[in-house]
Amino acid sequence: MKKKKVYRFSDEVMAKDTIISFIFGLVALAIIIVSVIMSIVKKGNVPDQIGYLLLAALVMGITAFIMGVIAYKDPDGGVLTKRTSVFISVIDIIILIILYIV
Description:
Layout: H1 16-41, H2 49-71, H3 79-101
Helix pairs in contact: 1-2, 1-3, 2-3
């Protein structure tokens, strides 16, 4: 006997946790990119505020990861956006760890 496919329709396109995770991940990535470019242009002589911004990017990356994992429990929204938000936050955290080591 064939199993019938069950379709589920929702009013929301994405879960709220996914949107927050996605935005935090993208903002953290933008901060990292701007900081690295600024460091290259200024040959390492950047203001102390760049360090604070990178610390804020780390906090946003960790928050984005946690919110992305929590979003998996929400039935609303697609799985692709949830995976993408978690992927971006993991990339943020990995880049920041590499920058800290180097």
